[in-house]
Amino acid sequence: MNRHIDIETLSRYFLNQLSSDEETAIQEHLSHCHECADRLDAMRKLREGMFGDELQEKQQTMLFRILRSGWTKAAAAIILVIGTGLFTAETIRNRNNVVEQHEIINGGKNSEEVFAIDTFDKQDSVYYHNKYGDDFKF
Amino acid sequence: MDQHLKKDSLELLTKECEHYRLKRLGFLRDIRKEAELLASRFPPKEDETFAQWKSRCLREYYRYKGFSAFCRDNIDNPDFETLVRTLINTYIQKAFESSPRTETDRFLAPDLDTVSYAMPPSLFQELYTIYFSAMPSFGNTSELDRFCGSIAGERFPVDEARIIGSLQENDNFYWEKFYTKLRPITDAFCYQMSGITGANNTHDIWSDTCISVNRAVVEHRLKEPVDSKAIISYSVGILKNKNKELARSKARTPVDVDTLQYRLTAEDDEKYFNNPITKPENFPSQIPSLSTYIDYSDKESVQGYFVVILYNKEHPLHDTLVKGYEDKIGRMFEHYIDGMSYEEIVARHYGITDGKKLTKECARLRQETKRLKNNLLERFYKMLEQYR
């Protein structure tokens, strides 16, 4: 194939519509004809420019797309808000419980007493259980 | 490493990727790196022709990369299914172009289209289950390609009985093709018998005929055994009756309706079903090569065809596509094909090289390119609708 490839054949090559033998002949020609290779390259670049974003988007992994999506960010924000809310509510409930238990046991005498109970945890629970026995229910 | 060999390897793998969608399937990631690997591991031997080297190096490369196992692992991958469907469709299309027109196509398919060499989704699923359930071992893409070719050879053209059965089961795929077939025939009969022209004026008759034929076939009201000729004859009968009614209602003096043609005569047959294109005066013309190029079910094929029309100035549809956008397309080509930045294009066309004006012009050019892309695609899809 000494002459240049006509544009229709090159288009068919670009569209994968040639037979295997024809395809090989074109590739052999392209290996030494810069002009034809440049024209084919132009079509490829044009496709990349026109539809490249779409192709890249397809190639991104599902996980990446999920992580990048706005819904994920919204869900994370909601979880954060709910988590903070639950933690606060739980802390308040603990505080009320401890005050209530203390008042029941001491007959409300030490109502002015200050408790450091904002960080009430399992160890505290054990401590109060040891101190007050089974009457302390938490 | 020899630059020439590198370039050849890159072209081979790029084409393999385009043809068999290897990147999308996840078989390859970086084509350049893979091309370097191919060139270094499987260089041409002495006295080996290009074709021999291509065949050997791809065969060995696919074996090295474990293509066979990859296919087995991807049997349920929708992208792999799409690839198989496209490959089979390519062979069917080739068979259609090189075979004489079947009787079924003559009576049921639009001009230049086919029902005998068409693969509706339901048929593809059936074939995929039969041939790919126990995934055969494919050493390389050529073997997969040949296997798809053999499926196309064995199963196409589709039997008339099967197509009629699908029509009786109200399969939209075949009905849509038949409705398209009826459109120019309706125009022809309306023009000849009632003198009505124009798509708007004949639309009601056409849609009424489509509904009547559909009901008759689906409700098994045609005399068994039903064949394609019986369906088209029934349709023509309805068309003629409708035109007779129209002629009678329009006539100022009584018309002898029996003098109007009624049956599908040999003359009709020759005129409307033996011609490759039914094309009386004023009928919409068709671009002969269009339907042979595009696989409408494949998005990449449609996009590829868009690029071909846009780039190839000799293509019969190029002028229609770019009309009014010539200058903008020139600038878009400079950006996409020549790789020029927006700044360089602005400097070249408007002589602005710095300052706020440059920034503003670049933003405008970016917007222009984006809008142009959308406008061209919109126009292209509208054009396709005309020729489908």
Blueprint of the fold:
The complex is a heterodimer of chains A (about 140) and B (about 400).
Chain A (H helix, E strand, L loop, with lengths): L6 H8 L5 H11 L3 H26 L2 H7 L1 H37 L15 H11 L6
Chain B lengths: L2 H18 L1 H4 L5 H11 L8 H16 L1 H7 L4 H21 L4 H6 L12 H12 L8 H15 L4 H9 L3 H23 L4 H20 L9 H23 L15 H8 L16 H4 L5 H13 L6 H5 L3 H11 L5 H9 L5 H32 L1
Helix pairs in contact in B: 1-3, 6-9, 11-12, 11-13, 12-13, 19-20
Give your account of this protein's structure.
The complex is a heterodimer of chains A (138) and B (388). Helices cover 72% and strands 0% of the residues of chain A. Chain A has 138 residues and is an all-alpha fold. Chain A is rod-shaped, with a radius of gyration of 37 Å. The model of chain A has no long low-confidence stretch (mean pLDDT 78). Chain B has 388 residues and is mainly α. Chain B has four domains: 63 residues; 81 residues, no CATH class; 111 residues; 98 residues, no CATH class. Chain B has 20 helices and no strands. In chain B, helix 11 packs across helix 12 and helix 12 packs across helix 13. Chain B is flat, with a radius of gyration of 27 Å. Chains A and B meet through helix 1, helix 2 and helix 3 of A and helix 1, helix 4, helix 16 and helix 18 of B.
In N-to-C order, the SSE pattern of chain B is HHHHHHHHHHHHHHHHHHHH
What general outline of chain A do the C-alpha atoms trace? rod-shaped
Helix/strand order of chain A: HHHHHH
Low-confidence stretches of chain B: 257-264, 274-289
**Approximately how much helix is present in the residues of chain A?**
over 70%
Strand content of chain B: under 5%
Average pLDDT rating of chain A: 78
**What is the total tally of β strands of chain B?**
0
Describe, in short, the structure shown:
With 138 residues, chain A is mainly α. Helix content of chain A is 72%, strand content 0%.
Structure characteristics:
heterodimer; A: 138 residues; mainly alpha; 2 domains; 0% strand; rod-shaped; B: 388 residues; 4 domains
